Amino acid sequence: MHASYQLHFSDHVGMFLKNYQKIQNRNNKIRN
């Protein structure tokens, strides 16, 4: 793996995790 590709990939994972947390928070609000 090239370093630049790895950095790009971790950026995408970070964005995915942030969006995932937002969705989880929304789901928790609906449930409670």
Quick structural overview:
The chain contains 1 helix and no strands.
What's the arrangement of secondary structure elements?
Layout: H1 3-31
Structural summary, described in words:
- It is a single chain.
- By secondary structure, the protein is mainly alpha-helical.
- Helix content is 91%, strand content 0%.
- It contains 1 helix and no strands.
- The chain has one helix at residues 3-31.
- The chain is rod-shaped.
- It starts with a helix and ends with a helix.
- Total number of strands: 0
Shape descriptor reads rod-shaped
Alpha-beta content class: mainly alpha
The N- and C-terminal alpha carbons lie at a distance of 44 Å
Helix coverage percent: over 70%
Number of helices: 1
Helix-strand sequence: H
Percentage beta strand: under 5%
Which regions contain 5 or more consecutive residues with pLDDT less than 50? Answer: none
Question: In this structure, how is the largest beta sheet organized?
Answer: none
Kindly report the average pLDDT value: 89
Rounded Rg: 14 Å
